[in-house]
What does this fold into?
Amino acid sequence: MRIVYILPILLVVAIQSAYALTVTPDSYYTTVEPGTYDTVNFHITNDANHSVNVTITVDPQLQGKISFSSTSFTIPENSTKTITAVISRNQPIDGYIHINNISVRIKVNQTQIQQPQSNFTIIPPQPVAGKNIIVLTPRENATGYIYITNSNNAYLITISNGVGVVHLEKEDYGNAVINIFGKNTYTKTISILPPHVENLYIDFPSSIKTGDNVTFTVYADGDPAVAKLKFDGADTFIVKTNSFGKATVKFRKAGNYTVTVSYFDKAIIKSFTVSPKPLKIQLPS
It folds into this structure.
């Protein structure tokens, strides 16, 4: 009896995915104050699984009245880039800046805009998701809340003797509104950055064959991470790791693959090969 091993033919498929950008803040309003300029940081997030080229343009009425640290750049996949704009307050203006297909309104009003009081302080001035925010008000006891648009989460804030603390989860990034109710009512809109990850690591077997159950484990700064895994190559698909950082995958097609690991503002790419499991055919002796 002879045993013949037959290796399946490899098929490579490439799929291009769509992309999406988000910009915070999504508008900016101020008032005329001759001889002064406002500096505004715009946080542009690429939620796609591939890099995106970005171009910033402005309406004709804004030309010469607003400048940017950069107007043409590339944002890596699942990353956020901060661009600084300098806006002249010498005279009234009203128009839009265009970040690819996203329009952000810029308006400098002739007279002071009447807005709710916002004379309280947050520490740090630029909050980061997954960390604490300290709220400082005039020395009083009060209550309030913070609402984060992106995650749809809201948290109560208790102010004691002018100090309150609220903890943000890692998905709590983007625009947020804080309302405080005490002797006065205070309102402030803030922008929260996504969590920053220093080290991202994925562990998987060195030898992988079709039909095997293969476990991929992701760690972010040493801890298991709920991350997105995008596989490209002989087959293309996306999975998400569980709370233990693990995802089990069974490959149907042999060939060369890449896996893109995305976790907040960090992404890494690893390559590997899936070998075909030999088929056993028994021939009459």
Remarks:
- The mean pLDDT is 86.
